[in-house]
Amino acid sequence: MLRFLVALGLLTAVMWGQGRNTPRGTAGEFDFYLLSLSWSPQYCSSSAGARDNTQCGQRQYEFVLHGLWPQYERSWPQFCSTSQTLSNPVVEKMMDIMPSRRLIRHEWEKHGVCSGMSAAEYFGKARTAFGNVKIPSGFQSPRNARTVAPAKIRDEFAAANPGVLKEAITVGCAGRFLSEVRVCAGKDLKARACPAEVQRQGCRMAEIIVQPVR
Fold first, then answer.
1. DSSP labels for 24-38?
2. Taking the domains of the chain in order of start, what are their residue ranges?
3. Which fold, 26-210?
4. Is 62 known to be catalytic?
5. pLDDT tens sequence across 178-214
6. One of 92, 107, 156, 207 is an active-site residue; which one?
């Protein structure tokens, strides 16, 4: 019985891993975008961030671009087939708002290829989406940690971005700490309400800690 359970566990793990990385969807065929803004101070407080001199060195980042993800109303496409390639100049051009070459390449390989655009067009659109979001004053170079409800963070983003509904914004956390803010947007990059599946992925903590800029 023990051997059977071990074998079953290994098989499940393999199948789960394959599902997570299995190509899905057709390039250019999706419903909306999910823009993910990562709170850099939280990453830089982790062991991985401590080893990352690019993002967590001398320059102090606040929110950085994690990705612009093509989405279906339920689920999302990934690793789509495309003849488009990502060049080093495009990678380097994104480093000011997305300070990880490895992340940039990963985002293209998993999400960008499903946009139906060239790498230059896709990352240009990602930059525009990032620039469209006005960051609330409380997240501009904070020097002290603060404890706040995720709903309050959502409200602050909605207030700083007139015309953007609260339902377009979700807040993510890593344990007790703010990790990211996500915004749902149409193909024209105008904010729209997130479907229930995306909203359910938001942080469920009553309060979380916003790490200060380091």
1. BS-TT--SEEEEEEE
2. 26-210
3. Ribonuclease Rh; Chain A (3.90.730)
4. no
5. 999 999 999 999 999 999 999 999 999 999 999 998 7
6. 107
Tens digits of residue pLDDT in 154-182: 999 999 999 999 999 999 999 999 999 99
CA 161 remoteness from chain centre? 19
Range list of H helices, the chain: 2-21, 40-44, 47-50, 53-56, 88-93, 101-110, 119-132, 150-160, 196-199
CA dist 199 and 116 (Å) reads 26
- 8 Å CB contact between 149 and 206: yes
Mean of pLDDT over the chain? 90
> Does 111 participate in catalysis according to the annotation?
yes
Among candidate residues 62, 66, 106, 180, the one labeled active-site is 66
Concerning whether 167 is annotated as a catalytic residue, the answer is no
Measure the N-to-C terminal CA separation of the chain; round to a whole number of Å: 52
pTM of the full predicted structure? Answer: 0.88
Count of other CB atoms within 10 angstroms of residue 85: 10
List the catalytic residue out of 106, 111, 121, 167.
111
- The DSSP bridge pattern shows strands 208-210 and 146-148 to be antiparallel
